[in-house]
Design a protein that fits this description.
A two-stranded antiparallel ribbon has the order 1-2. It has helices spanning about 25-30, 30-40, 75-90, 105, and strands at about 1-5, 15. It folds into two domains: about 1-50, no CATH class; about 50-110, no CATH class. The protein is mostly helical.
Length: about 110
């Protein structure tokens, strides 16, 4: 849930996202418990999107395609997908240690 504190809604208003991976023929009913917690709701937008995945790994074609967004709201699986694409492209995992600032960069000392 986000609000005016995030500069995305008027004072006293909130924007909430309730999402799930559809398991039945009544997806809105699946999220009803979450929607009830958010009541009263002034406006509601419902959308259903297919979850798409690439047909191949891209290692042969050198065309690397990501998956579509899923029901996670903080992009956890999207980050995993990006790391997977990097590994398929480069042949090794991304080294996050290389990206960390060295003490020297911050404080000017070794």
């Amino acid at each position: 849930m986000i609000s005016s504190a995030h500069n995305v809604a008027a004072q006293g208003k909130y924007i909430a996202i309730a999402s799930t991976t559809v398991e039945t023929k009544e997806p809105e009913k699946e999220i009803r418990p979450a929607l009830e917690l958010l009541e009263p709701i002034e406006q509601k937008f419902v959308s259903i999107s297919d979850l798409l995945v690439p047909k191949d790994l891209g290692t042969e074609s050198q065309i690397f395609i990501s998956r579509t967004y899923d029901a996670t709201t903080h992009f956890e699986t999207t980050c995993d997908d990006i790391k997977d694409i990097y590994k398929r492209m480069m042949g090794s995992e991304f080294d996050f240690e290389e990206m960390k600032r060295k003490k020297n960069d911050i404080y000017g000392e070794e």
